[in-house]
What we know:
This protein has two helices and six strands; from the N terminus they run αββββαββ. About 20% of the residues lie in helices and about 45% in strands. The N and C termini lie close together (about 10 Å). It has about 130 residues and is of the alpha+beta class. The model has no long low-confidence stretch (mean pLDDT about 95).
Amino acid sequence: MDFPNQLMKFINKLNLPSKMKLGYLDSGESFVMYPMAGSRVIDEFMDGTTDQQLNYEIAMKSQSQSKIHEVLWEVQSELELMNDLKSEDKSFDFHKLQITNKPFINQIDEQGWFVFLLDIQVELTIYNI
């Protein structure tokens, strides 16, 4: 299923000072997306197709709070307006995306690194291809 890649491509087309990657935060500045606990199958069909509710987190780590603010609030604004996302391999149909937590601070460390998070929930039909 190519949903995470398609959402990453959508976000990386925005005019942001950082590029997103899939995975977890690095030791330095990073902007990432990864799956969260709590995802579930809503409905399952005879052919193996499922309607699913999936949880993802978008995280950014930087020593610049203003950069984090610029990036995550722009992403949040664009995601709230998004009403469609296409699959390149036809593995999913997009239904809706909801912001479950607007950008919030999660961590500050002794070296001056800030970590902010943005949580989303998506509903998709995922095809058994």
